[in-house]
Amino acid sequence: MSDSLVSIVIPSYQRPESLRQCLTSIERHVDEPHETLVVYVADDEATARLAKQFDVRLIEQPRRDGFVKAANLGFRQAKGRYLIQINDDCEVLPHSIANGVRFLEAPGHEGVGQAAFFHNSIVRRNIFAQIQLEEEWFYVCQVRGLC
Questions:
Q1: Cβ atoms 141, 123 nearer than 8 A
Q2: Which of 30, 33, 52, 80 has its CA 20 to 30 A from that of 100?
Q3: What gap in Å lies between CA 130 and CA 58, rounded to an integer?
Q4: How far apart are CA 105 and CA 128, in angstroms?
Q5: Measuring CA to CA, how many Å separate 88 from each of 16, 26, 29, 112?
Q6: Contact, 112 vs 147, CB < 8 A?
Q7: How far is CA 64 from CA 52, 55, 90, 139, 140, in A?
Q8: Where do runs of H (alpha helix) occur along the chain?
């Protein structure tokens, strides 16, 4: 069993600079015991080279097979109690992972299987909820199904 409380899975393809910002934000803002898994495609040498500069576990796909299969590959190898998937162009905000874990571990939430994070993406479709913090808006957007 892993000592990681949280497994952070990041599928990435040919966006090493975005991935650099993402991994840097994880280093700066995630204090909980965690593992970071970067799923990349074998021919994407720039992503692999960049990821090796960080404390991550690289998971190689032999060929590009789509986001969902990449994420699932990472999920199957994750060892943490909680599983987080983020995109390679996301940055983790201070306390966001800790707050998610605290929410999931709160009394009465034993049956909760998912927590959604607010983000400040330029995407404004399918907004489920929104909050304003220090004059900036953050959103939870539905991708499929219901929140």
A1: yes
A2: 52
A3: 34
A4: 23
A5: 8, 11, 16, 26
A6: no
A7: 20, 24, 21, 30, 28
A8: 16-29, 45-51, 67-77, 96-105
Predicted TM-score (pTM) of the model is: 0.81
User: For residue 10, what is the enclosing H or E element?
Assistant: strand 6-11
Alpha carbons 7 and 1: distance in angstroms, whole number: 13
Q: What is the DSSP string of 74-99?
A: HHHH--SSEEEE--TT--PPTTHHHH
> How far is Cα 10 from Cα 13, in angstroms, rounded to an integer?
10
Give the contacts of 91 (CB within 8 A, at least 6 positions apart). 21, 22, 25
Which secondary structure element, helix H or strand E, spans residue 40, and what is its range?
A: strand 34-41
Place of tokens 């600079």: 17
Strands 136-141 and 127-133: antiparallel
Q: What sign does the CA torsion over 34, 30, 26, 117 have?
A: positive
Residues 6+ apart with CB under 8 A from 85: 8, 9, 10, 11, 71, 74, 75
